[in-house]
Amino acid sequence: MDNIAAIATGNQYSELGIIRLSGSSVVSALNGFIDVVDYKPRMYTPCYFTLKDNIAYPAGIVYFKAPHSYTGEDVIELHLPGNPVLLDDVCRELFKADVEPAQPGEFTKRAFLNGKMDLTQARSVMQLIQSSDESQRRHALTMLEGDTSDKLQKIAEGLVSVIGLLQASLEFSPDEIGAIDAQEIHQLLKNIIKMCQETTPSEGSQRSGNFTRVLITGASNTGKSSLFNALCKKRRSFVSPEPHSTRDSIEAVLDIGSGQVCLVDSCGTHLADDEFRYGLQKQYRNLIEQADVAIVCFNGSTAIDLEQINYYKNINLPKIAIITHRNTDLDLDNMLFIDLITGDGLGALNNALIDIVSKTNTASLGAQWSKSHADILERLEQALEMLQNDEPEEFAVTFLEEAKDILDNLRGSEVSEDILDGVFKRFCVGK
Amino acid sequence: MQNKTPLENYDIIVVGGGHAGCEAAASSARLGCKTLLLTMYIDLLAHMPCNPSVGGTARGQMVREIDALGGLMGKIADRCAVHSRLLNHTKGPAVQSPRCQVDRFVYRNEMQRELMRIDNLFLKQGEVSNLILEDNKIKGIITKDMRFYTAKAVILTAGTFLGGEVHIGQNSQVSGRAGETASVELSKSLQQLNLDIKRFKTGTPPRVTKRSLDFTKFEIQDADENPTKFSFTAQKTLVNSKHCWMAYTTEQTQQIVADNIKSSSLYGGQIEGTGVRYCPSFEDKVVRFADKTRHHIFIEPEGDRSEELYLNGLSNSLPPEIQDKMLRSIPGFENIEVTRYAYAIEYDYVLPYQLKRTMELAKFNGLYLAGQIVGSSGYEEAAAQGLVAGVNAVHKLQNKKPFVLERSEAYIGVLVDDLVTKDIQEPYRMFTSSAEYRILLRHDNADIRLYDTACRVGLIDDNFKEKTKSKIKAIKDLTSQIEGRWIEGKEAVNLLNMPKAKLTDLIEKLSIEKAKYADDVIKHVEIELKYRTYIKRQLAQVERNLKMERVNLPDDLDYDKVDGLKNEAREKLNKLRPADLGQASRIAGISPADIAILTVYMRGIKKLPRKV
User: Fold this and answer.
1) What does the alpha-carbon distance between residue B484 and residue A294 come to, in Å, rounded to a whole number?
2) Rounded to an integer, what distance in angstroms lies between the CA atom of residue B312 and that of residue A35?
3) φ, ψ for residue B571, nearest 5 deg
4) Chain Cα centroid distance, residue B300
């Protein structure tokens, strides 16, 4: 199965929304959903798209037959009303059929692999893959923020211990480690399944997290809030010459022309030297973890110390440096000068944002998460059934390991608990 | 030194006569290369300095794979088995593993006999002091007594002898194994090559006399009535001539250890090497499992005619007087006579990421390493690597393709791939959980799944080939008689889905002539049909992943030039230099996005015009 799909038109309400599909059998994958069969390539064919609730939405499709398409494979553009909730639901249904969520940069990667792109473009393809992967991962974390992320952690830990118990019973004889209670394993697994069932993220949390998050940051008193206000074109943020006026972050949805972003005004970056400010720093770390783009403000009328410059250099996100009063000595990547009183330079900043945002597409994430969730649950339930039917444990372990892989992937590749570690902590074996 | 006239010229020299060395030397000689096996003491060829047993979970599968590929371990073990069990026989087919206690004296003897009968193979006593290399290519070796032998390839299988140091209590001495000298000069010679070398530690329990134990206090551990052989060609039926017993330590035993913990080498600061999570010493058990009131001990025979017994579970590095005291607190051990005290050993190992999957060092042409010297643990792991190194050294000399087993083909493939890919933090032991395709890698099907490979390698004889060929035919034949048949309105194969259902019942119901099929054929077909959905599912995964495995990454690929990779990924790839995309994807910290980028990059550089 090699069909992929993703929302191509970003995450906003608009007249039209497009889901793009690519793969060798996208035509048959769509068969159950639309009411037309013999559509011609490169023609717009109006149709109705039926969701599981039997409501038919007016839609249209444009079919590009391989190899005459962007990716070089069969490609279908599915045109639907531009409602993010609807597009997300459609993706969910597609992912239940013969379609996988597109990996970061995958359409472009396929285009390249199928010879649709010039070799000189390979470089940008590779950078696109990494930057969209990073932004997707950050979005996934935002989406799962708080409660859900804790629950996922618990599910992962539970899975590790169940797999560990089963593996211990396979690696070592009861003589060595004593008998392992099958009922205990069943119960643990049931608990995990229950936790997993309760972990479906609400529709609302997915929506608000889906905008590209642009964080305004910088040292104290560099004009972050003024910039925020200037961008929002009205006084949203309280501005004062005293340091640390902005103690909670403030967010606003901003239309940058090509789409919407979530603009976040943060507190200052100065190192903590007392409890109060330490609290602010912790909050700040959260903000930067969730951000996709950083705008770092510098006050060019005062001396800019090395600490501030290093801070900027170390930000591991697409970033823009904003100098609020002209200082020609500075030399930083992506540097823009803005006069906050006249508004000079704001247009250039907007263009820079459009450019960065065009490289991140996170619109299909909600549906993707829901697909992973269903995949995990399916494997857990299958494993439980097998264990209850007394089928060999090694088969059930395989399903649990698959569930763990999907979960690890969802939570980020760095978090992979060592299963055997748990086994050797609990069981005493050795010569 | 290089100007010295060589005493003799060989194709391949194997240094070390342990389990890795024996397999390496045998395979190299049998594949037509003039081979020298150089060992410090010929009477200790294939010695088992620790547990006198072969096989066990995952390791049993590996021994059968070695046998299916034409190696020696399974055959020799079958000749001297004294107590055999099929571990996990009540569990699923993928995790059943043969294990047997062997007579260690007969094992050594049989291996020596076997090796001395192989054409092209020459055994000599001697200790290597220097490796001779020119332009990073191996040319030969020099022994401590100044003999110079040339070779086109050298396989080092020095086990724990590199910088070996034995610890008992506060007493430490330089030694390769208890009572044997360490290989100090060779250690130095290797260090001069600027390899990444670290230290591991392991240990062995005490040996005691049989007459000093009170066997009425122990439980007997039964052997199987119909022992499973390792070798697919063995004729002789195995006989269980010996017993094993189980005993338990007491709270007093633990108290004695706890009171004297500072006098142990491990806790007294003598030992700096990394220990093993899966094989803690008895001191570790007492410290880490303080709440347990007792620990089990397996009492195992050292040999058919031996009066010594091995106390599995009591490995430690306490001073002799504490070992005596501790042992006497165990019921049945009141009058114990220790013949050899337990000890811990520290040794140097070469971090295996520096190897290719052929076991050749990436930086040094023709220099191969196998066994404990690269951080593995266990006779079976060592033997498997020895076989891989031996065959590959020959293949390189004969300009043949490298002999690399996939993870989906054999535990041996998993072993080698893990060694060269993973961050090895403790002696590497094979577990069934390390093999993601374990459903395919069963002990019972090793001959079938490795048949094509074994024929290509060329170490198996015609009889074995014929035997396997007809087995494969019989399996196909029997399967075809069952698939598509119906019984009382139900598809016959579906009747096998019930956990307790047996193929023999089905054969009867379908009036198939059972006598035509050997037991192992029926067993094989039963497993394959009963678990067909899971097997198919794994085969499909293998198929998907193989696409990635087959994209080779060139030796000289400069990852700094690959745009878009994360810095961490770049560093790891430059250090580990994976052979293909599949291996790259298994390196910790390499994300799917990094793999996608590499895919694009590889496609890109392939199409780039040659530099003028």
Assistant:
1) 64
2) 71
3) -60, -50
4) 21
Domains in chain A with CATH codes: 4-117 (3.30.1360.120), 143-203+363-426 (1.20.120.430), 211-357 (3.40.50.300)
Distance of CA B253 to the CA centre of its chain: 33
Q: Name the residue in chain B with its Cα closest to that of A401.
A: B436
- Structure confidence by residue, pLDDT tens digits, B374-432: 999 999 999 999 999 999 999 999 999 999 999 999 999 999 999 999 988 899 999 99
- Burial (0-12, 13-18, 19+ Cβ within 10 Å), A227: buried
Q: How far is A215 from chain B (nearest CA, A)?
A: 22
CB contact under 8 A, B433 and A123: no
The nearest CA of chain A is from the CA of B385 a distance in Å of 22
Q: Which residues of chain B are within 8 Å of residue A122 when distances are taken between CB atoms?
A: 600-601, 603-604
Q: Which of the residue ranges A2-6, A141-145, B21-25 would you say has the lowest mean pLDDT? A: A141-145
Report CA torsion sign: A208, A213, A214, A219.
positive
Nearest Cβ partner for B438 among A394, A421, A424: A394
Helices (H), A320-389: 346-357, 365-388
CA distance, residue B135 to nearest chain A CA (Å): 37
Nearest alpha carbon to residue A210 among A144, A105, A139: A139
Q: Quote the tokens at residue B224.
A: 């199987």
Upper half-sphere CA count for residue B124 (Cβ side, 13 Å): 18
Q: Which of B529, B525, B581, B532 is nearest to B554 (CA)?
A: B581
pLDDT of residue A204: 39
| List of residues 6+ apart from B464 with CB closer than 8 A | B70, B232, B233, B447
pLDDT in tens, A11-46: 677 888 999 999 999 999 998 899 988 889 999 999
Chain segment B518-558, per-residue pLDDT in tens? 999 999 999 999 999 999 999 999 998 888 888 899 988 99
Residue A268 has pLDDT above 70, yes or no: no
How far apart, in whole angstroms, are the C-alpha atoms of residue B129 and residue B146?
A: 9
> CA-to-CA distance for A9 and A30, rounded, in angstroms?
19
Say whether B329 sits in a helix, a strand or coil. coil
Domains of chain B: 8-52+104-201+347-454 (3.50.50.60), 207-344 (2.40.30.260), 461-540 (1.10.10), 550-607 (1.10.150.570)
This model's pTM is above 0.90: no
pLDDT grade for A357, boundaries at 50, 70 and 90: confident
Contact A394 B94 (CB under 8 A): yes
